[in-house]
Design brief:
Length: 119
C-alpha cells in the first residue's frame, strides 16, 4: 500500500506479515494495552525499531562538493515483528528530502576545566 504525506515524500506501508498474512504486530499489540490505559496517545504509531539515514556518497570529499541548500534524499524504515510467526519485516518505509545546512556550532568541550583532574 502507498500513501503520500507531502508532495516530496513517499510512504509505503505493509499492514500484514509477508510470511503468514497476520496483522498482529508484537510491539504494536503491547502499545495498545498502554493506550487502552490512557498512558499513550491513541494516534501514536509504535515500532520495534526505526532505521533512518541520508542517501549520500560515502566519501566525505564528494559530500563536501555538495553546496549548502541542496535538497538531498532521506529515508526511514519502521521495522516490526509478526506476533504469530516471528517474521521481522518493514511495516512502513518513507522517502523524503532534507536540505544540506551549515553544521551547528557547539561549545568546545575539551576546553572545560575538570575540577578533579590533577593536570
Ligand atoms: Zn507472520
Amino acid at each position: 500500500m502507498q500513501e503520500n504525506n507531502k508532495p516530496e515524500s513517499k510512504i509505503i506501508r505493509f499492514d500484514k506479515c509477508p510470511n503468514c498474512g497476520s496483522k498482529k504486530r508484537f510491539a504494536s499489540d503491547m502499545a495498545q494495552t498502554v493506550k487502552d490505559r490512557g498512558l499513550m496517545r491513541m494516534e501514536l504509531e509504535f515500532w520495534e525499531n526505526i532505521w533512518q539515514g541520508v542517501v549520500r556518497d560515502v566519501d566525505p570529499r564528494q559530500e563536501a562538493k555538495v553546496p549548502f541548500g541542496t535538497k538531498v534524499p532521506t529515508f526511514y524504515v519502521c521495522v516490526t515483528v509478526c506476533s504469530d510467526c516471528g517474521t521481522i519485516y518493514a511495516g512502513k518505509m518513507v522517502e523524503d528530502t532534507t536540505t544540506k545546512q551549515l553544521p551547528q556550532a557547539t561549545a568546545p568541550t575539551d576546553k572545560l576545566i575538570n575540577p578533579i583532574s590533577s593536570s
